[in-house]
Specification:
Elements: H1 2-10, H2 12-36, H3 43-58, H4 72-84, H5 86-90, H6 103-138, H7 141-163, H8 171-174, H9 176-186, H10 190-215
Helix pairs in contact: 2-6, 3-4, 3-6, 6-7, 7-10
Amino acid sequence: MNNLFSLYVLNKKQNNFLIFSSITAVALLLIRVKITHSFYLLFLIWNLILAVIPYIISNFIKIDFSLKKYNFKNLFFIVTWLLFLPNTFYLITDFVHLNHTNLIQFCFDFILLLSFTIAGFYFGILSIFSIQQQIQFFYTSKTSYLFTISISYLCAFGIYIGRFLRFNSWDIISYPLFLAESTFNCLFENETWTFTLGLGTLITIINLIYIKSKSNI
């Protein structure tokens, strides 16, 4: 708990925005539940929680691959971060649940889903940015940008696996062989590459814009 409080204090401004955006999204969802008496979109809260995990983990990762600093604990954080990172951007795919014929309901749900997407994306952007900054410090700017681009497309591919193949981050432990087989097979599908390149490009652009904006401050 003390570690989490320290992380909050160190990045108080951005964490306040993360808290505000998350509370706003959840509040809109609770208003929807109150008005419609439907629990249809409550799963969004779980998806948002999954988006918080990689952001927290990224603050414990140390990008220093010298043998002296390299250890199992750090490797565990890196692998876990990679597995959960796609959950931050995954929220954008929840727009598939936007299907009301009532215009007012449609508009409200659009704003609701957008609020969760913004919160999730910001968790992902800040998570990647914290690692990118370390890579830039220990190596080069070119390497850090290559990392950002690569991880953005890997996130898009991970989202495809989650949305269309219906796997979760922990399935690498629960069903490793089935996950590996399904992932390999989908590499030969045009749909996989279309989705990955399309969403990956969007995530890449947003990440690079954020990095550029921070470098100009």
